[in-house]
Amino acid sequence: MHHTAMSPSVPLQEMIRAIRSARTQCEERGVIQRECAAIRAQFRQSDNGGRSHNLAKLLYVHMLGYPAHFGQMECVRMIASPRYSEKRVGYLGAMMLLDEKQDASLLITNSIKNDLSHSNQYVQSLALCTLACMGSAEMCRDLAPEIDRLLRASNSYIKKKAALCAVHIVRKVHDLGELFTPAARSLLAEKNHGVLHGAVVLITELCERNQETLERFRKTVPDLVQIMKGLVISGYSPEHDVAGISDPFLQVRILRLLRILGRNNEGASDAMNDLLAQVATNTDSTKTVGNAVLYETVLTVLHIKSESGLRVLAVNILGRFLLNNDRNIRYIAMISLQKIVGTDHNAVQRHRGTIVDCLKDQDASVKRRALDLSLALVSASNVRSMMKELLLFLSSCPPELRAQAASGIFNAAERYAPSQRWHIDTILHVLTTAGGDVRDETVPNLIQLITNASELHCYTVHKLYRALLTDISQQSLVQVACWCIGEYGDLLLRGECQETEPVQVTEDDVLDALETVLQSHMSSPATRGFALTATMKLRTPLSLTANTDRIQSIVSIYGSCIDVELQQRAVEYNALFRKYDHMRAAVLERMPVIEKNSPGHTNGESTGEPIKDIQTLKVKQGEPLLPQQPANQVLTLTQMHVV
Amino acid sequence: MMRFLLLFSRQGKLRLQKWFTPISEREKKKIIRDMTSMVLARQPRSCNFLHWKDLKIIYKRYASLYFCLAIENQENELLALEVIHRYVELLDKYFGNVCELDIIFNFEKAYFILDEFLMGGEIQETSKQMVNRSIEASDMLQETMEEYMSKPAF
């Protein structure tokens, strides 16, 4: 049915057409300047028939982003007009152009006060609406008694608006909550849904601001339960029905108020238990509106002192939400489950399968939430299967989630690793898949882990060597691989290994691999440092003179490298070859197990012990103590081992 | 409570703005820019909820118009979608198969309807019929009761 009661404002529509037909921004500005000039001129004239049209034009111009403050006083004038059409546009203008910060807003206080007692409810309505929209604290204080009067004695149309006005007043001037409390209480007896809704919003506001008030309103729980029951069980009510749910807006507000009243209170929570169970079970969940009510019910159940059976019911609803076709509902479920994974861990665990499936969801937001939740659900009993899913996710996840996924996997692996070998395998898997997205501490952490797993040194170095042959682009992986090869090169060359198939690795193969890393443009300077040190460390296990020469030649090339760090290392290593060959074996011997001390143990600190160990060793073996300068050099070289 | 409601076209042109808290003109302009760029950048089949500062942004597209509603954190997102939908239904009933042009050329009516449905950032009337009746009655008043208005008000 096309609405014909209200004839459109021709002057307004003509202006809109003129503005829209402007082909450029410049042309539009021209039209608007002309129109504004005309409007200004009209404002200055005395009362003519077209005042409301003029102000409406100005409001349109304002919406396009052009300045309109010269219309503020016109709003004030129009509001004071006896004509409804002018009041209507005047109040609209006030709401759009004035706010409590403008001086002009005070000028309308008197008009509002008068209009609140107007004999026509539509005029009263304009005043109420404007007060609730932009009433300043001062205006609120001034008009509060009038609003309270309207709350008690007027028709439903006015009462519902007065209720929301009271809400606004309480938000602006908290102490005035006391004034409205009695009226709010009696409004719960109203039948009109608009008034009831306003009453519930007002009571909620009062309870949220004042603990005493909240305790007084707890007595209303049975009344609220009755009202809800009426809505849930009642027959079809065409006026309030939305897809089979009777007034979902009111239902949700009541549920929220019940949540506030039931929190931390056994008595109140008991009184609403049955109702919540009823709503949770009977509400139709095929449409969004039903799910909106269910969602609010779940939130209430989880925040009051509900029975465990009811809690499980609530979590199950969330579990069902996860399977819903509507991605909004899946997203809501994820958010809610995330909030309760700490307090209701076991209940959430029951839905782990569904949650893990959501890692494959099309929607990026759902994926992100599924990741957070999955990581929170890893435990000692499910770590193997969860890790499989998470590693699978990592290989295909969106780039913005990779860093988070990688670090989450590392943390979970560290907490729940069933074995050291599993732990090392998992970390290697992450480095192979997402090595570019891991944090810097990963490398020293992994090295520390490896040194601690002494039975797995052979297995680890073989695995890393093979990984290195496949791909040298992932810097973290390459760095750890180089370190291991340098450290456990003898195990690599020995060939046989308990945990993997035996494979022949010659000295040339190993040196080839390290040289490839050194020469690759993909290798960062830090990575080259690792490779260079590893090459140097291999001097000890390598027996053939040919390879010793090869090592020395690799090292000397970097003596003139443009990177200062590499150059320094190369020069010092060369020194080890020439002048300090007798020290070389001791300096480059196997690292002791690194203690995991405080987080972020840096380069220098953890070498305190090893250096002492080496020096003590020398003393014990009867070798002369070294002169001061070489001791300093030893310090530097050993520091470089633990990068 | 709801903080603001914006309607804008696919080209980012603003068609309606309702603010439920006092905000400076400058801040309003910034928010409008942020909302339009955020919402227009969304993929077609994403979920309708966004996070922005400490608020939840609920948006939905109806034909050529985007409805963008900002709510506080304790509010129910799914119900917010219903609020948007209800407003669209009210516009549709009033204009008859409402389209963007109706809202452009009759923007003040769109505000009048909104002001019978929402108030102070909360829902004012939950019955569609009640809102429609109130708007019709107000329009009638504007048309025919001009003389009544000029009588003194007591």
Describe the structure.
The complex is a heterodimer of chains A (643) and B (154). Chain A is mainly alpha-helical and 643 residues long. Chain A has helices at residues 10-20, 25-44, 51-63, 72-79, 84-97, 104-107, 109-116, 121-134, 137-152, 156-172, 177-187, 193-209, 211-217, 221-233, 248-262, 266-282, 288-303, 308-322, 327-340, 345-349, 352-357, 364-377, 383-396, 399-416, 420-434, 442-452, 457-470, 475-494, 507-519, 525-537, 545-557, 564-578, 581-587, 608-620, 628-641, and strands at 241-242, 245-246. In chain A, helix 4 packs antiparallel against helix 5, helix 17 runs parallel beside helix 19 (327-340) and helix 24 runs antiparallel to helix 25 (420-434). The longest helix of chain A is centred in the first third of the chain and has 20 residues, at 25-44. Chain B is of the alpha+beta class. In chain B, the strands form two sheets. Chain B has a five-stranded antiparallel β-sheet, with helices on both faces. In chain B, a hairpin with a 2-residue loop joins strand 4 (55-62) and strand 5 (65-71). In chain B, helix 4 (107-117) crosses helix 5. The radius of gyration of chain B is 17 Å and the shape is globular. Chain B starts with a strand and ends in a 5-residue tail after the last helix. The model of chain B has no long low-confidence stretch (mean pLDDT 92).
